[in-house]
Amino acid sequence: MNSRKKIPMRKCVATGEMKPKKELIRIVRSKEGEVSIDPTGKKSGRGAYLSLDRESILLAKKKNTLANHLSAEIDPSLYEQLLEMVEKENHSTK
């Protein structure tokens, strides 16, 4: 019997790379059309995954990738929040 646990993989909407789910952040659009960051990955609604690095976030913002995937208007403050999360992540690993 295979005892190794299967690692859930998800695709980053900005870069198209397949990565383990834990390395990505989920952005979710609720039924009401509200778009928010979902750190738990468990909120109900339409989700899109983004790599937690500055380049991926800026690429998604430039190409309007999240708006296309979630079929919703993305507030610029959402990208600011994501960039802040990346900064915190980088500071905590150093």
From TrEMBL:
Signal peptide location in the record? Answer: none
The record, for PANTHER family, names: BLL0784 PROTEIN, YLXR DOMAIN-CONTAINING PROTEIN
Superkingdom of this protein's organism: Bacteria
Q: What is this protein called?
A: YlxR family protein
Q: Where is the YlxR domain?
A: 10-82
Name its species: Peribacillus saganii
